[in-house]
Amino acid sequence: MDALTLLFWIFSAVLLAAAVRVITARNPVHAVLFLVLAFFSAACLWMLLRAEFLAIALVLVYVGAVMVLFLFIVMMLDINIDRLRAGFWRHLPVAGLVALLIALQLWLVLSQGDWLLLRQPGPGIREANNTEALGRLTFTEYVYPLQIAGSILLVAIIAAIALTLRRRKDSKYQDPARQVKVKRSERVQLVALPPDVQARQTPAPDNK
Asked: Domain map of the chain by residue range?
């Protein structure tokens, strides 16, 4: 067993253990930290596959930005973990069956003989830079699918903001535009009282 194979088994074991702890940890903060460990292990596996750009993007984008945001949200929200995990063990057999079917489908696809040709790189592939090759394919052959995917994500972001920014009826807020446009007659209102109305005076208490 060479060093690459040993590192593959180590990172794979850590990745599987961290993934299991993500769904079994009772503390949500611990689950997020185990998910960070799973991302780091997946990035190490991609480094072994010479996919440096994907490994760096996984660490920078997901671990550096997304998971920090998840951890901040989990620590700020008051989540009832017991109620969320009430039906976990009840649905575990169905989830295990679905995972087994997915693994079986992946094995049937990857075990075909045509996929073995991917292990034999063509001329010039070994000497090419992984990031440079990915950039050339992204901005030449796949430029239109990339723009379409970016437009779809932009529409999804706008839709999510529009759905969350609903005006609440029970909230009190100020409108600076209406405050600036207010007139003098609207600020002070003079009330005319009849002359026979007198203020009632309460008698002083007797100290004797």
From this structure: 1-82, 129-163
Question: First vs last Cα of the chain: how many Å apart?
Answer: 108
Q: What is the pLDDT of residues 111-149, one digit of tens each?
A: 665 544 544 555 544 555 777 777 888 888 888 988 999
Average pLDDT score over residue span 24-35: 82
Fold (CATH) for 1-82: Four Helix Bundle (Hemerythrin (Met), subunit A) (1.20.120)
Q: Which candidate, 9, 2, 17, places its Cα nearest to that of 44?
A: 9
Spatial distance between the Cα atoms of 22 and 187, rounded to a whole number of angstroms: 59
CA-CA distances (angstroms) from residue 26 to 33, 124, 127? 12, 50, 48
Measured between alpha carbons, how far is 123 from 118 in angstroms, rounded to an integer? 13
Helix-helix angle 130-139:143-164, to 10 degrees: 80
- Which has the higher per-residue pLDDT, 139 or 172? 139
Residues near 56 by Cβ (< 8 Å), separated by ≥ 6?
43
Distance, CA of 52 to chain centre = 23
